[in-house]
Design brief:
The chain is built from 18 helices and two strands. The protein starts with a helix and ends in a 13-residue tail after the last helix. It is mostly helical. Helix 5 runs parallel beside helix 17. It has a two-stranded antiparallel sheet. Keywords: Membrane, Transmembrane, Transmembrane helix.
Protein backbone atom coordinates (compact mmCIF):
# COMPACT_ATOMS: atom_id res chain seq x y z
CA UNK A 1 0.00 0.00 0.00
CA UNK A 2 1.38 3.44 -0.98
CA UNK A 3 -1.27 5.58 0.75
CA UNK A 4 0.32 8.26 2.99
CA UNK A 5 -0.12 7.59 6.70
CA UNK A 6 -1.50 11.09 7.28
CA UNK A 7 -4.73 10.10 5.49
CA UNK A 8 -5.20 7.27 7.99
CA UNK A 9 -4.39 9.27 11.13
CA UNK A 10 -6.58 12.24 10.19
CA UNK A 11 -9.73 10.10 10.59
CA UNK A 12 -9.30 9.84 14.38
CA UNK A 13 -7.58 13.18 14.99
CA UNK A 14 -8.41 15.23 18.09
CA UNK A 15 -7.35 18.42 19.91
CA UNK A 16 -5.39 16.38 22.47
CA UNK A 17 -3.42 14.68 19.70
CA UNK A 18 -2.82 18.08 18.11
CA UNK A 19 -1.35 19.44 21.36
CA UNK A 20 0.95 16.38 21.57
CA UNK A 21 2.05 16.84 17.95
CA UNK A 22 2.60 20.57 18.43
CA UNK A 23 4.88 20.12 21.45
CA UNK A 24 6.75 17.21 19.86
CA UNK A 25 7.23 19.07 16.55
CA UNK A 26 8.65 22.14 18.32
CA UNK A 27 10.98 19.93 20.39
CA UNK A 28 12.30 18.07 17.35
CA UNK A 29 12.84 21.37 15.53
CA UNK A 30 15.19 22.51 18.31
CA UNK A 31 17.18 19.29 17.85
CA UNK A 32 17.10 19.42 14.04
CA UNK A 33 18.26 23.04 13.73
CA UNK A 34 21.87 22.69 14.98
CA UNK A 35 22.16 19.20 13.50
CA UNK A 36 21.13 20.40 10.04
CA UNK A 37 23.67 23.22 10.16
CA UNK A 38 26.46 20.93 11.36
CA UNK A 39 25.71 18.19 8.81
CA UNK A 40 25.73 20.69 5.93
CA UNK A 41 29.09 22.11 7.03
CA UNK A 42 30.63 18.64 7.47
CA UNK A 43 29.35 17.73 3.98
CA UNK A 44 31.29 20.61 2.45
CA UNK A 45 28.16 22.66 1.75
CA UNK A 46 26.90 26.05 2.87
CA UNK A 47 25.17 25.73 6.29
CA UNK A 48 21.99 27.28 4.88
CA UNK A 49 21.58 24.20 2.67
CA UNK A 50 21.06 22.07 5.77
CA UNK A 51 18.23 24.32 6.98
CA UNK A 52 16.56 24.33 3.55
CA UNK A 53 16.76 20.52 3.44
CA UNK A 54 15.23 20.16 6.91
CA UNK A 55 12.33 22.45 6.00
CA UNK A 56 11.50 21.16 2.51
CA UNK A 57 12.42 17.51 3.02
CA UNK A 58 11.04 17.28 6.55
CA UNK A 59 7.68 18.74 5.48
CA UNK A 60 7.21 16.44 2.46
CA UNK A 61 8.38 13.22 4.14
CA UNK A 62 5.79 13.72 6.87
CA UNK A 63 3.09 14.74 4.40
CA UNK A 64 3.52 11.79 2.01
CA UNK A 65 5.32 9.20 4.18
CA UNK A 66 4.18 5.79 5.31
CA UNK A 67 5.10 6.19 8.99
CA UNK A 68 3.11 7.91 11.73
CA UNK A 69 6.15 9.43 13.42
CA UNK A 70 9.03 9.53 10.92
CA UNK A 71 11.00 12.81 10.86
CA UNK A 72 12.99 13.59 7.72
CA UNK A 73 15.97 15.82 7.07
CA UNK A 74 19.70 15.76 6.28
CA UNK A 75 21.51 12.99 8.16
CA UNK A 76 25.05 12.02 9.11
CA UNK A 77 24.96 8.95 6.87
CA UNK A 78 25.09 11.20 3.80
CA UNK A 79 28.08 13.29 4.87
CA UNK A 80 30.67 11.01 3.26
CA UNK A 81 28.78 10.66 -0.04
CA UNK A 82 27.82 14.33 -0.27
CA UNK A 83 31.36 15.50 0.51
CA UNK A 84 32.71 13.22 -2.22
CA UNK A 85 30.15 14.28 -4.85
CA UNK A 86 30.70 17.98 -4.16
CA UNK A 87 34.48 17.53 -4.30
CA UNK A 88 34.35 15.65 -7.60
CA UNK A 89 31.37 17.23 -9.41
CA UNK A 90 30.70 20.53 -7.63
CA UNK A 91 27.58 21.51 -5.71
CA UNK A 92 25.50 21.67 -8.89
CA UNK A 93 26.47 18.04 -9.49
CA UNK A 94 25.15 17.09 -6.05
CA UNK A 95 21.85 18.84 -6.78
CA UNK A 96 21.41 16.88 -10.02
CA UNK A 97 22.39 13.60 -8.33
CA UNK A 98 19.84 14.27 -5.58
CA UNK A 99 17.12 14.99 -8.16
CA UNK A 100 17.88 11.74 -9.99
CA UNK A 101 17.97 9.84 -6.67
CA UNK A 102 14.48 11.19 -5.97
CA UNK A 103 13.22 9.84 -9.28
CA UNK A 104 14.83 6.44 -8.56
CA UNK A 105 13.14 6.36 -5.14
CA UNK A 106 9.77 7.26 -6.68
CA UNK A 107 10.14 4.36 -9.11
CA UNK A 108 11.16 2.14 -6.20
CA UNK A 109 7.98 3.05 -4.35
CA UNK A 110 5.86 2.46 -7.45
CA UNK A 111 7.35 -1.01 -8.04
CA UNK A 112 7.10 -1.89 -4.31
CA UNK A 113 10.87 -2.11 -3.76
CA UNK A 114 10.36 -1.15 -0.11
CA UNK A 115 9.77 -4.82 0.66
CA UNK A 116 13.36 -5.66 -0.43
CA UNK A 117 14.92 -4.16 2.72
CA UNK A 118 14.81 -7.64 4.32
CA UNK A 119 17.43 -8.88 1.82
CA UNK A 120 20.13 -6.41 2.92
CA UNK A 121 22.31 -8.16 5.52
CA UNK A 122 22.18 -6.48 8.93
CA UNK A 123 25.97 -6.87 9.29
CA UNK A 124 26.48 -4.74 6.16
CA UNK A 125 24.21 -1.98 7.53
CA UNK A 126 26.03 -2.06 10.88
CA UNK A 127 29.44 -2.09 9.20
CA UNK A 128 28.95 0.93 6.96
CA UNK A 129 27.13 2.82 9.73
CA UNK A 130 30.08 2.39 12.11
CA UNK A 131 32.46 3.28 9.27
CA UNK A 132 30.53 6.46 8.51
CA UNK A 133 30.61 7.33 12.22
CA UNK A 134 34.42 7.02 12.25
CA UNK A 135 34.75 9.21 9.14
CA UNK A 136 32.42 11.89 10.55
CA UNK A 137 34.27 11.98 13.88
CA UNK A 138 37.69 12.36 12.26
CA UNK A 139 36.40 15.03 9.89
CA UNK A 140 35.43 17.15 12.92
CA UNK A 141 38.81 17.02 14.66
CA UNK A 142 39.94 20.14 12.80
CA UNK A 143 37.26 22.35 14.36
CA UNK A 144 37.12 20.42 17.65
CA UNK A 145 40.72 21.37 18.49
CA UNK A 146 40.97 24.46 16.28
CA UNK A 147 43.56 23.34 13.73
CA UNK A 148 44.38 25.77 10.93
CA UNK A 149 43.94 23.73 7.75
CA UNK A 150 42.62 25.27 4.55
CA UNK A 151 41.29 22.13 2.85
CA UNK A 152 40.66 18.84 4.63
CA UNK A 153 40.85 15.94 2.13
CA UNK A 154 37.99 13.46 1.92
CA UNK A 155 40.31 10.44 2.05
CA UNK A 156 40.70 9.07 5.61
CA UNK A 157 44.32 7.96 5.11
CA UNK A 158 45.31 11.42 3.81
CA UNK A 159 43.48 13.21 6.62
CA UNK A 160 45.33 11.79 9.64
CA UNK A 161 48.90 12.80 8.64
CA UNK A 162 47.62 16.27 7.68
CA UNK A 163 46.19 16.73 11.20
CA UNK A 164 49.54 15.70 12.67
CA UNK A 165 51.42 18.21 10.50
CA UNK A 166 49.06 20.99 11.68
CA UNK A 167 49.36 20.06 15.40
CA UNK A 168 51.20 23.28 16.25
CA UNK A 169 48.11 25.33 15.28
CA UNK A 170 46.07 23.63 18.03
CA UNK A 171 43.76 26.09 19.88
CA UNK A 172 43.14 25.59 23.60
CA UNK A 173 40.10 27.91 23.40
CA UNK A 174 38.49 25.77 20.69
CA UNK A 175 39.13 22.60 22.66
CA UNK A 176 37.59 24.05 25.85
CA UNK A 177 34.45 25.21 23.99
CA UNK A 178 34.12 21.81 22.30
CA UNK A 179 34.51 19.95 25.61
CA UNK A 180 32.04 22.26 27.38
CA UNK A 181 29.48 21.62 24.61
CA UNK A 182 30.07 17.87 24.64
CA UNK A 183 29.73 17.70 28.44
CA UNK A 184 26.54 19.77 28.43
CA UNK A 185 24.95 17.63 25.71
CA UNK A 186 25.68 14.39 27.59
CA UNK A 187 24.61 15.87 30.94
CA UNK A 188 21.33 17.34 29.68
CA UNK A 189 20.43 14.12 27.83
CA UNK A 190 20.83 12.11 31.03
CA UNK A 191 19.13 14.58 33.36
CA UNK A 192 16.38 15.82 31.00
CA UNK A 193 16.01 13.40 28.06
CA UNK A 194 12.98 15.24 26.65
CA UNK A 195 14.59 18.66 26.98
CA UNK A 196 16.08 20.12 23.72
CA UNK A 197 19.58 19.95 25.19
CA UNK A 198 21.42 20.22 21.86
CA UNK A 199 20.38 23.79 21.13
CA UNK A 200 20.85 24.81 24.79
CA UNK A 201 24.37 23.34 24.97
CA UNK A 202 25.47 24.96 21.70
CA UNK A 203 23.80 28.23 22.71
CA UNK A 204 25.64 28.36 26.07
CA UNK A 205 29.02 27.55 24.48
CA UNK A 206 28.52 30.09 21.70
CA UNK A 207 27.47 32.73 24.26
CA UNK A 208 30.75 32.09 26.12
CA UNK A 209 32.69 32.67 22.89
CA UNK A 210 30.85 35.93 22.18
CA UNK A 211 30.90 37.32 25.74
CA UNK A 212 34.58 36.51 26.36
CA UNK A 213 35.71 37.41 22.81
CA UNK A 214 37.51 34.08 22.49
CA UNK A 215 39.66 33.46 19.36
CA UNK A 216 37.29 30.81 18.05
CA UNK A 217 35.71 30.50 14.59
CA UNK A 218 31.95 31.03 14.39
CA UNK A 219 29.38 30.31 11.73
CA UNK A 220 29.32 34.00 10.80
CA UNK A 221 33.10 34.46 10.63
CA UNK A 222 33.47 31.49 8.30
CA UNK A 223 30.28 31.50 6.21
CA UNK A 224 28.61 34.87 6.74
CA UNK A 225 25.00 35.44 7.78
CA UNK A 226 22.33 32.84 7.04
CA UNK A 227 19.50 33.80 4.64
CA UNK A 228 16.11 34.51 6.22
CA UNK A 229 13.98 32.93 3.47
CA UNK A 230 13.88 29.93 1.18
CA UNK A 231 15.43 30.25 -2.29
CA UNK A 232 13.27 30.14 -5.41
CA UNK A 233 12.94 26.59 -6.79
CA UNK A 234 14.67 25.81 -10.09
CA UNK A 235 15.79 22.76 -12.06
CA UNK A 236 19.51 21.92 -12.33
CA UNK A 237 21.37 21.38 -15.61
CA UNK A 238 19.77 18.30 -17.20
CA UNK A 239 22.27 17.70 -20.02
CA UNK A 240 22.66 14.06 -21.09
CA UNK A 241 26.41 13.95 -20.39
CA UNK A 242 25.92 15.32 -16.88
CA UNK A 243 23.13 12.84 -16.13
CA UNK A 244 25.28 9.87 -17.24
CA UNK A 245 28.25 11.20 -15.25
CA UNK A 246 26.23 11.48 -12.02
CA UNK A 247 24.06 8.37 -12.33
CA UNK A 248 26.29 6.19 -10.07
CA UNK A 249 26.18 8.88 -7.34
CA UNK A 250 22.38 9.10 -7.72
CA UNK A 251 22.02 5.34 -7.15
CA UNK A 252 24.18 5.50 -4.00
CA UNK A 253 22.15 8.43 -2.63
CA UNK A 254 18.90 6.61 -3.43
CA UNK A 255 20.14 3.40 -1.79
CA UNK A 256 21.24 5.19 1.38
CA UNK A 257 18.00 7.19 1.56
CA UNK A 258 15.93 4.03 1.15
CA UNK A 259 17.87 1.97 3.68
CA UNK A 260 18.10 4.66 6.35
CA UNK A 261 14.47 5.74 6.05
CA UNK A 262 13.13 2.18 6.15
CA UNK A 263 15.40 1.23 9.07
CA UNK A 264 14.26 4.35 10.91
CA UNK A 265 10.61 3.48 10.23
CA UNK A 266 11.20 -0.06 11.52
CA UNK A 267 12.78 1.27 14.73
CA UNK A 268 9.82 3.64 15.13
CA UNK A 269 7.39 0.73 14.68
CA UNK A 270 8.99 -1.06 17.64
CA UNK A 271 8.77 2.07 19.79
CA UNK A 272 5.08 2.79 19.09
CA UNK A 273 3.96 -0.78 18.31
CA UNK A 274 2.83 0.32 14.88
CA UNK A 275 3.38 -0.70 11.27
CA UNK A 276 4.71 1.59 8.57
CA UNK A 277 4.02 1.38 4.82
CA UNK A 278 7.43 0.84 3.17
CA UNK A 279 6.41 1.70 -0.37
CA UNK A 280 4.65 4.91 0.70
CA UNK A 281 7.82 5.75 2.61
CA UNK A 282 9.98 5.24 -0.48
CA UNK A 283 7.62 7.39 -2.57
CA UNK A 284 7.80 10.14 0.06
CA UNK A 285 11.62 9.98 0.02
CA UNK A 286 11.48 10.37 -3.76
CA UNK A 287 9.19 13.41 -3.63
CA UNK A 288 11.26 14.99 -0.83
CA UNK A 289 14.59 14.53 -2.63
CA UNK A 290 13.25 15.95 -5.89
CA UNK A 291 11.89 18.98 -4.03
CA UNK A 292 15.09 19.40 -1.98
CA UNK A 293 17.13 19.41 -5.20
CA UNK A 294 14.84 22.04 -6.74
CA UNK A 295 15.51 24.26 -3.71
CA UNK A 296 19.27 23.51 -4.01
CA UNK A 297 19.20 21.45 -0.82
CA UNK A 298 21.01 18.29 0.29
CA UNK A 299 19.83 14.68 0.04
CA UNK A 300 17.12 13.93 2.59
CA UNK A 301 15.96 10.79 4.39
CA UNK A 302 14.24 9.59 7.53
CA UNK A 303 16.39 10.42 10.56
CA UNK A 304 16.50 7.79 13.31
CA UNK A 305 17.63 10.16 16.09
CA UNK A 306 15.03 12.83 15.29
CA UNK A 307 12.29 10.22 14.85
CA UNK A 308 13.11 8.77 18.28
CA UNK A 309 13.10 12.30 19.75
CA UNK A 310 9.67 12.88 18.21
CA UNK A 311 8.27 9.70 19.79
CA UNK A 312 9.76 10.45 23.21
CA UNK A 313 8.38 14.01 23.05
CA UNK A 314 4.86 12.66 22.46
CA UNK A 315 4.44 12.90 18.67
CA UNK A 316 1.47 10.85 17.49
CA UNK A 317 0.92 11.57 13.80
CA UNK A 318 2.75 12.92 10.71
CA UNK A 319 1.52 16.41 11.66
CA UNK A 320 4.33 16.54 14.26
CA UNK A 321 6.88 16.31 11.42
CA UNK A 322 5.07 19.00 9.45
CA UNK A 323 5.06 21.27 12.52
CA UNK A 324 8.80 20.59 13.01
CA UNK A 325 9.47 21.88 9.46
CA UNK A 326 7.26 24.95 9.97
CA UNK A 327 9.01 25.82 13.25
CA UNK A 328 12.43 25.64 11.55
CA UNK A 329 11.10 27.92 8.78
CA UNK A 330 9.87 30.43 11.39
CA UNK A 331 13.22 30.39 13.19
CA UNK A 332 15.00 30.88 9.86
CA UNK A 333 12.76 33.86 9.04
CA UNK A 334 12.93 35.54 12.44
CA UNK A 335 16.27 34.63 13.99
CA UNK A 336 18.74 33.92 11.15
CA UNK A 337 21.25 36.61 12.31
CA UNK A 338 21.62 34.88 15.71
CA UNK A 339 22.96 31.75 14.01
CA UNK A 340 26.07 33.71 13.01
CA UNK A 341 27.25 33.52 16.64
CA UNK A 342 27.23 29.72 16.77
CA UNK A 343 30.75 28.47 17.55
CA UNK A 344 32.33 26.00 15.13
CA UNK A 345 33.90 23.83 17.91
CA UNK A 346 30.42 23.53 19.47
CA UNK A 347 28.97 22.25 16.19
CA UNK A 348 31.96 19.90 15.84
CA UNK A 349 31.24 18.50 19.33
CA UNK A 350 27.61 17.94 18.32
CA UNK A 351 28.66 15.94 15.25
CA UNK A 352 31.17 13.87 17.22
CA UNK A 353 28.36 12.95 19.64
CA UNK A 354 26.17 12.14 16.62
CA UNK A 355 28.92 9.98 15.12
CA UNK A 356 29.39 8.12 18.44
CA UNK A 357 25.64 7.43 18.66
CA UNK A 358 25.59 6.25 15.03
CA UNK A 359 28.08 3.48 15.87
CA UNK A 360 25.70 2.19 18.61
CA UNK A 361 28.50 1.21 21.08
CA UNK A 362 25.97 -0.52 23.35
CA UNK A 363 25.62 -3.18 20.65
CA UNK A 364 29.33 -3.90 20.08
CA UNK A 365 29.41 -6.85 22.51
CA UNK A 366 26.32 -8.27 20.83
CA UNK A 367 28.00 -7.99 17.43
CA UNK A 368 31.16 -9.69 18.74
CA UNK A 369 29.12 -12.62 20.09
CA UNK A 370 27.39 -13.14 16.75
CA UNK A 371 28.26 -15.64 14.04
CA UNK A 372 31.84 -15.43 12.75
CA UNK A 373 30.58 -14.84 9.23
CA UNK A 374 28.50 -11.85 10.41
CA UNK A 375 31.44 -10.40 12.37
CA UNK A 376 33.70 -10.82 9.34
CA UNK A 377 31.13 -9.20 7.03
CA UNK A 378 30.69 -6.28 9.44
CA UNK A 379 34.47 -5.70 9.68
CA UNK A 380 34.90 -6.03 5.91
CA UNK A 381 32.21 -3.43 5.24
CA UNK A 382 33.58 -1.15 7.98
CA UNK A 383 37.17 -1.22 6.68
CA UNK A 384 36.11 -0.70 3.06
CA UNK A 385 33.89 2.23 4.10
CA UNK A 386 36.70 3.98 5.97
CA UNK A 387 39.70 3.14 3.79
CA UNK A 388 38.30 2.75 0.27
CA UNK A 389 34.86 4.09 -0.56
CA UNK A 390 31.25 3.79 0.58
CA UNK A 391 30.14 2.66 -2.89
CA UNK A 392 32.65 -0.19 -2.91
CA UNK A 393 31.81 -1.09 0.71
CA UNK A 394 28.09 -1.42 0.04
CA UNK A 395 28.56 -3.29 -3.24
CA UNK A 396 31.05 -5.78 -1.83
CA UNK A 397 29.22 -6.11 1.51
CA UNK A 398 25.82 -6.86 -0.03
CA UNK A 399 27.34 -9.29 -2.58
CA UNK A 400 29.34 -11.20 0.05
CA UNK A 401 26.38 -11.15 2.46
CA UNK A 402 23.97 -12.63 -0.09
CA UNK A 403 26.57 -15.24 -1.08
CA UNK A 404 27.00 -16.26 2.57
CA UNK A 405 23.22 -16.48 2.99
CA UNK A 406 22.96 -18.84 0.02
CA UNK A 407 25.93 -20.88 1.25
CA UNK A 408 24.49 -21.35 4.74
CA UNK A 409 20.91 -21.89 3.64
CA UNK A 410 19.53 -25.18 4.87
CA UNK A 411 18.24 -27.38 2.08
CA UNK A 412 15.51 -29.71 3.24
CA UNK A 413 15.90 -33.30 2.15
CA UNK A 414 13.23 -34.34 -0.32
CA UNK A 415 11.23 -37.51 0.26
CA UNK A 416 10.83 -37.85 -3.49
CA UNK A 417 11.80 -41.20 -5.02
CA UNK A 418 11.77 -42.30 -8.66
CA UNK A 419 8.54 -43.99 -9.72
CA UNK A 420 8.43 -47.62 -10.71
CA UNK A 421 8.20 -47.91 -14.44
Amino acid sequence: MRQPKILTTIKTYSWQIFVNDLLAGATVAMVALPLSLAIAIASGADPAKGIVTAIVGGFLISLFGGSRVQIGGPTGAFIVVVFGVIGQHGYDGLVLATLMAGIILLLGGYFRAGNLIIFIPEAVVNGFTIGIGIIIATSQLKDFIGLSIDNVPADFLEKIPLFWEARETFSIASLIIALVTLTLIVFLRRVKPRFPGLIVAIGISSALVASMSLPVDTLGSRFGELPSQLPCPELPDLSTSRIIELLPSAFIIAFLAAVESLLSAMVADKMIEGKHRPNAELSAQGIANIASAMFAGLPVTGAIARTATNIKAGGKTPLAGIIHAIVILLVMSLAAPLASYLAMPALAALLIITAWNMTEPHKWCEYARGKKSDVGLLLLTLVLTVVVDLTVAIGVGVSVGLALSLLHRKVEESDWSPPDR
